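A student in our group prepared the protein record below, which I am reviewing. This is what I was given:
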Amino acid sequence: MFGKKLIGCAAGLAALYLTMFVGSLVSQEMRAGEDSFRKGKASMEEFECEKAIEHFSEAINANPEEPEYFLERAKCRTMLNANTAAPANSAVRKTPKMPATVALAVADLDAAIKIDPEYSPAYFVRAEVKSPYAAPGSPAVAETVKDYDKAIELESGKAEYKFAKARFLLDYAGDEKAGLAVYASMLAETPNDLKVIVARANYFMRAKKYDCLLYTSP
């Protein structure tokens, strides 16, 4: 009887030590991930995107369950292919083909959302990343709008998300009615918001709809 108790006690201690050891390893990995992430952010601030991507990849390898690591790597990959296409309402605008590095950025954002479906920045950045490659009238437009809408749903107080959605609809998707409806909705929430009024006026100027500049109500 005593021998069985002794064996049971030893087994319990072994399990405890194993748990502590595994926990220590996990803690070390997480710290390594945080360190690599900080290095990535520092490189990103210096516009050293390739080096930043390496650091963010190291962070992901150390802790693949942190959505922010995927988000920041996606931003870096997008920076490597800064798009300079003219807006959809420009006569010279042609929807470019998505580069491979941008497709990898989208994959990173997909991963971040899979980890945390409530992570609003990932939806917003995915919409921003995909917007220059969404041809007017294509299914990609609806997909991009869906991402903007999800980000806004999760963080309705973020005016940045709403402005970006309006800009996409007006300047890339070529959907004036929907784009102006976003501004109207914002003005309904906050009447006489100068930033919204100016943004809408800038659109009318770009579209050469000067008569609309006299219209100031939501």
Notes: The chain has a mean pLDDT of 85. The radius of gyration is 24 Å.
